[in-house]
Structures are given as C-alpha cells and as structure tokens.
Write a structure and sequence with these properties.
Blueprint lengths: L37 E3 L2 H9 L5 E3 L1 H7 L8 E5 L6 E3 L2 E5 L2 H5 L3 H11 L1 H10 L6 H11 L2 H6 L20 H9 L9
Parallel strand pairs: 1-4, 3-5
Antiparallel strand pairs: 2-3
C-alpha cells in the first residue's frame, strides 16, 4: 500500500487546462481502489496496517520498560503527520514528520516520542541507551519535531551535543537530575 495525493475537481471549478491538470489514468485490467480513512481501534489493527506497509507503530509501556524506563501509560500510536487527517483512532497519537520514524522507530525516535509523554522518562531512556545512541540523529529528530525546549529542560544536550538553549526555559538543576537518575522505578502491575 502506498500513499498518493490527488486533486478533486469541485463543481464550482470551470474547465481546467489539461496542460496543467493531468487526469489520473487507471490501468484497464486492474482499477485502483482508493481508501479515505484508516481506522485503528485495536493493537491487531495496528499489526494489520503495518503488514500493508503503512508507516504506523505502537509505543507502549512494555517497549518503554525494554528501553530502560518502567513508566505505565496507555499505548500511543506513532504516525506521520500527513496521515493524521485520514486517521480514525481511539489511541492517543504522536505525530512525526519523518515517515521512517513512524514506520520503524529507532531509539532516538522513542526518545522524541517520550519527550511528549514524560520528558524525564526521555532522559532516562537516553541515559540507559547512551552506548547505542546516535547523538547527531537524536539532535536532528529533536529539532525536526520542534521539541528543543522540552529537551533543553531535561538537559538532553548531554546526549545530543549542539542542542540549542531555549530562551525562557530554565533547565532542571544538575543536582535534581542526578537524584532523578538514581531513582529506581518499579513497574506496577496493570489492573
């Protein structure tokens, strides 16, 4: 499955010059089927969409725990920003500009997603995975998503050198972050 962009002629539009507006040609033996909604209700729907090559992923507590932060939260759907208008879901969504970040998220993409859920949790994941982090990619992903202020607040510049200081945002003190880093999280059983 692939995404396409098409224009629809409105009744108020007059004749459109064919030199500028080219009609969509359909193969005669196999017409295209167009879908105008993506309905994701369950985790199984996410798996089905992924099998159809849609750039959608689910980020849940189990993945967060695997990455080093045992925070319990409801699953979050990671989707490209351009798919949001056609998405019909009950899941909370986090949008990405990059299609690949939503299709097959890397540690850096999970850190960016966690910045929107729990900024200190994003720092904890970065700290736990420091050896396998790509600091340049992490910086690019933070900048692309416009999360510089949140990242600066929890001093992610330690893991993504070059992160600009955000005016008007005071970073958490190093002492407070050190005590937060030492804090042990225990995963509570889900009810």
């Amino acid at each position: 499955m692939r995404a396409t962009i098409s224009l629809v002629r409105e009744p108020k539009d007059r004749a459109l010059p064919p030199t500028v507006f080219v009609k969509d040609e359909r193969p005669p033996h196999r017409p295209l089927t167009r879908f105008n909604r993506i309905r994701i209700r369950t985790e199984r729907d996410v798996q089905t969409a992924r099998k159809a090559n849609l750039p959608i992923s689910l980020f849940d507590s189990l993945q967060s725990q695997t990455l080093g932060h045992s925070l319990s939260f409801k699953p979050v759907l990671l989707v490209p920003r351009e798919y949001l208008p056609v998405l019909d879901t009950g899941f909370r969504t986090i949008t990405f500009i990059d299609l690949d970040a939503a299709r097959s998220p890397r540690i850096e993409d999970f850190i960016v997603a966690m910045l929107r859920i729990d900024a200190l949790g994003a720092r904890r994941i970065a700290r736990a995975n420091r050896a396998s982090l790509d600091p340049i990619l992490l910086l690019r992903r933070i900048m692309a998503e416009g999360l510089e202020a949140r990242a600066y607040r929890v001093r992610l510049d330690e893991y993504a050198p070059g992160l600009p200081a955000s005016p008007g945002v005071r970073p958490i003190s190093k002492g407070a972050l050190e005590s937060e880093d030492r804090r042990v999280f225990v995963r509570r059983p889900e009810k």
